[in-house]
Design goal:
Length: about 325
């Protein structure tokens, strides 16, 4: 029997990973580790000895949680195949090559990676290196077509995503919503806001930037419906979902270098929302529907009229984004 441990991470994205895997949490033979840090004072003497043997400089609680779960599953039935699946951003340096090798040898573990970021991005570099330059990774999935030729272990997938239950029938308060960091897209965000407000579109725009850049962007706070705060005020992902669902249209603004889809198209499909995005990749998205999704380079009067038009949305979504599809693929293919 195959058993699966899906590893999240403790960071500002911790809740997001939990939501992305929400529909498999609690499913038999699938174990999700998120926010896995427990006090390292509970690490037993034998495991501390193991860490010293592996020459790890720091005792990472997450390592202990993963090791313990793999050990329990192996003890339950030594013939079971244990699959440990990481998201690329979660494969931090704490997971040394020695530690991963120990997991594989001691508990017959297979290691997989789900790349939700493109190869070459900072958050994918460690996972990319393990995939391309070691024999530790048994299989990997990527959301990017252009990365598929990097390794014969890669398989295409959707970004894993799951709907949060209990968010039905949220009252509409705004016409359009955008929430995110400014980074390199300040100019296009400004142009979008001005076009929308000048055409009496009721916006809710939540922008975040560093304290050092706050003065540079303080003018955003003068627009009605727009807020500007520093990074420390970024809301939990579930809170931002509520803000999204209070609006009729989701606005997705990426900088010029991004080709991978953000989570906005996935949110739009799962929650049956319309989407306005400047990411041209939306045109190749399997769920692209010109009635409900629009691509723009600059927001035009035609886009404004489309936003104002109210329309019942239905993408006929049926769990195609679920990470359960990856697990089913691994089970069916016998990998």
């Amino acid at each position: 029997m195959k058993r699966f441990i899906i590893v999240g991470e403790k960071s500002s994205y911790s809740e997001m990973y939990k939501i992305m895997c929400g529909d498999v949490i609690g499913v038999e033979n699938i174990y999700f580790i998120n926010d896995p840090y427990s006090s390292y004072t509970f690490i037993n003497r034998g495991f501390r000895k193991l860490l010293r043997k592996l020459r790890l400089k720091n005792y990472c609680e997450q390592l202990y949680t993963l090791y313990k779960q793999a050990k329990l599953l192996h003890k339950h039935n030594k013939k079971d195949e244990i699959n440990v699946i990481f998201f690329n951003a979660g494969l931090r340096d704490e997971y040394s090559e020695q530690f991963l090798e120990k997991l594989k040898k001691k508990f017959h573990v297979k290691i997989g990676i789900v790349f939700v970021d493109s190869f070459g991005t900072f958050s994918a570099m460690r996972a990319q290196n393990l995939l391309l330059n070691t024999d530790l990774v048994d299989y990997a999935y990527t959301i990017e077509d252009e990365d598929l030729d990097k390794s014969n272990k890669l398989t295409k997938c959707f970004t894993p995503y799951a709907k949060i239950n209990g968010y039905a029938d949220i009252p509409q308060k705004h016409d359009i919503y955008f929430g995110g960091t400014i980074k390199t897209r300040g100019g296009i965000i400004k142009n979008c806001i001005e076009k929308l407000i000048n055409n009496n579109i009721k916006v809710k725009i939540e922008l975040f930037t560093s304290m050092e850049e706050m003065n540079q962007y303080k003018f955003f706070g003068n627009y009605p419906g727009v807020s500007l705060e520093d990074y420390s005020a970024i809301k939990d992902y579930s809170q931002m979902i509520v803000e999204s669902l209070e609006s009729d249209v989701l606005l997705d603004i990426t900088d010029g270098g991004q080709t991978a889809l953000t989570l906005r198209p996935y949110e739009a499909v799962v929650y049956n929302k319309r989407l306005l995005t400047n990411n041209k990749s939306i045109l190749d998205f399997k769920f692209y529907d010109p009635r409900y999704m629009r691509y723009f380079t600059e927001i035009t009067d035609e886009d404004v009229q489309w936003i104002k038009k109210k329309e019942k949305v239905d993408y006929n979504y049926n769990h195609q984004f679920s990470i359960a599809n990856i697990i089913n693929h691994l089970t069916e293919e016998g990998k």
